[in-house]
TrEMBL record:
CDD domains: PBP2_LTTR_substrate. This is HTH lysR-type domain-containing protein. It comes from the Bacteria. The keyword Mitochondrion does not apply. PANTHER family: HTH-TYPE TRANSCRIPTIONAL REGULATOR CZCR, HTH-TYPE TRANSCRIPTIONAL REGULATOR YBHD. Gene3D superfamilies: 3.40.190.290, Winged helix-like DNA-binding domain superfamily/Winged helix DNA-binding domain (1.10.10.10). Residues 13-71 form the HTH lysR-type domain. GO terms for cellular component: cytosol. InterPro entries: HTH-type_LysR_regulators (IPR050950), LysR_HTH_N (IPR000847), LysR_subst-bd (IPR005119), WH-like_DNA-bd_sf (IPR036388), WH_DNA-bd_sf (IPR036390).
């Protein structure tokens, strides 16, 4: 890559330099990035200084309050570096494919619920089938996963709508249920209408899941009476076990229910879609495609059986 600045052609920036900047962005530490790449801290500092000299601007700064952070131009450079580094990976994959090998790295973004529900089985299956492929996990909220997709921090994300800005592949479509304590009066009903929940204390699942629930209430001219908000479904289930409210989620997302915690079908029937998302299906790597196909084989079949 040639960097043009003030009429001069600067030195070619190599793969190792680009990877270092990406590792610093991921670890937010010169020391940790150096350890991952087997570089000393002084060598890391010299390399960063060399890159900034070639670019003619600071891309990384440090202060006591924020630690290491990227400047505004640094964030834009980082997006380009990730694109370039991904192209390097594609070259490695092409060469490996000629030798009959599957190699590469897949950066996967998912919220905690999706991480625990989907990724262990996907990773185990891929390790058996593609032992030379590496999977790196990025765990955060659904909104964070979408941001990581936009900035190409991750190759593929597990998200729920709205997701029109990405290329998506349907993974699951599951019916929403109302989860409550077995002593709750609503448990006596076979199904629960959304209007039955108008005065109920709602334990709201956050992290991106709440948008669909608010929309559901709004579509029926209702406002949910939110008593608690939680990042993890396990927290919500513990609240419900103590009789502190009800929540709306999917049967599979709630996992193994604690004692005295039960669910009923919600009416009108409403589904939550879970999708695999990438920036551009046409340009994704073979490693990313292998991850997607593995996920579909493991979970899309379950979805067909349920429906």
């Amino acid at each position: 890559m040639h960097i043009h600045h003030r009429g001069d052609i600067k030195n070619v920036m190599n793969k190792s330099q680009i990877e270092l900047i990406i590792r610093i962005s991921e670890t937010r530490s010169f020391t940790k990035a150096g350890e991952e790449l087997h570089m000393t801290q002084p060598a890391v500092s010299r390399t960063v200084a060399s890159i900034e000299s070639q670019l003619g601007t600071k891309i990384i700064k440090r202060d006591k309050k924020n630690g290491i952070f990227f400047t505004e131009v640094g964030e834009r450079v980082l997006v380009i570096f990730r694109k370039i580094f991904n192209e390097f990976h594609k070259i490695d994959e092409l060469v490996a494919a000629e030798q009959g090998l599957e190699v590469g790295t897949v950066h996967v973004g998912a919220d905690p619920t999706a991480c625990s529900r989907f990724l262990p089985k996907i990773i185990r299956t891929m390790e058996e089938k593609y032992p030379r492929l590496e999977i790196k996990l990025w765990e955060g909220t659904i909104e964070q996963v979408k941001k990581w997709l936009r900035t190409e921090c991750v190759d593929v994300g597990i998200i729920i709508p709205p997701d029109k800005e990405f290329d998506t592949i349907p993974l699951l479509k599951e019916q929403l249920v109302v989860v409550m304590h077995s002593d709750h009066p609503l448990y006596q009903k076979e199904t629960i209408n959304i209007h039955d929940l108008q005065e109920e204390n709602i334990v709201m699942e956050k992290g991106g899941y709440e948008e669909q629930i608010y929309t559901l209430f709004r579509d029926h001219n209702l406002t949910p009476k939110v008593r608690f908000e939680m990042e993890y479904i396990e927290t919500g289930l513990s609240m419900i076990q103590e009789g502190l409210g009800v929540t709306i989620t999917t049967e599979k997302n709630s996992g193994t229910l604690p004692d005295q915690v039960v669910f009923r079908e919600l009416k009108p029937v409403t589904y939550r879609e879970t999708n695999l998302a990438v920036q551009d299906c046409k340009h994704m790597s073979k490693a990313t495609d292998a991850f997607i196909q593995t996920a579909l084989t493991l979970f899309a079949a379950d979805d067909l059986e349920m429906n």
